[in-house]
Amino acid sequence: EEIQKAYSKGIMDITVKSLAPSAAGIAGSAGLVAVGQKALHGQENDKIVQKYRKQHPETNLSYDQILDNYYKNRSLAPLDENGEPDFECLEAVDLKLFDKQIEQLLNGEEVILPTFNFILGVKEYKEKAKMDKNEILVIEGIHGLDSNILTNIPRENKFKIYLSALTELNIDNHNRISTSDNRLLRRIIRDNRTRGYDVTKTLENWAKVRSGEEKYVFPYQDDADFTFNTGLIYEIGILKTYVEPLLYSVDDQSPQYEEAKRLIDFLRLFLPIPSDAVPQDSILREFIGNSCFNV
Questions:
Q1: Rg (Cα) of the chain, in Å, rounded?
Q2: Contact 29/18 with Cβ under 8 angstroms?
Q3: pLDDT tens digits for 204-246?
Q4: Predicted confidence (pLDDT) at residue 125 exceeds the cutoff of 90
Q5: Spatial contact of 14 and 3, defined as CB atoms under 8 Å apart
Q6: What is the phi/psi pair of residue 221, to 5°?
Q7: Please, which residues have CB within 8 angstroms of residue 216's CB and are 6 or more apart in sequence?
């Protein structure tokens, strides 16, 4: 419904922001449009897609590459105040290429999109893309709400969606489950599965990620046209079965050992839940794998 409202206003660019690495999504891109990073693009058998196409045959649904694919090659990454690579800042993104390719897509031109290889730390150009008439372009990334991207496209032509995994559980009447811990568990699993990161690297980088949120996400969240909570009430039980072996692998001499131990103790509050019953179109599949979407 929100997509159709945007389309009826002539909006061709939907900018999506996801705090959950997305999927994530959402991750990804994840959340309102569908679940996972490739969302509705080409998923002809998905019930959401079938329903939308039936109701709005004049409108196509498309999904562009996520902003993460436009990272500058790792050797060109900007440095933070400690002289270490800063992958959270906007300057880590090749904005010149991003703005150019998005404008070309909206003009109906064919472009070769980059895919960032997180193992090698470089962009690879493999996938061709071209938008048809009446297609809606979806963009996902940590800087999706930032007014400094796509400055060549008017604000009225953007529909911004803010996604965040907000945990709605309490331990008791006085202690709540940390939303940040939930997102950290998601990130550990995703980083290990799709980026080849050791759990200690994810734990080491987490402070930078949180700092990046304060600088590059929260200041822009009020500019969103729509807010969506991607958290699932049962997900920590699911994530536990995937993340515990990774946390137990942290050596007791590692600087990240105490944090790993804290998370292990935290997970003792939850019974493990088998992932067999998790739908293949669930946002959780962006992190644990076996999604029907290409994530």
A1: 19
A2: yes
A3: 999 999 998 899 888 999 999 988 898 999 999 999 999 999 9
A4: yes
A5: yes
A6: -65, -30
A7: 88, 89, 90, 142, 143, 146
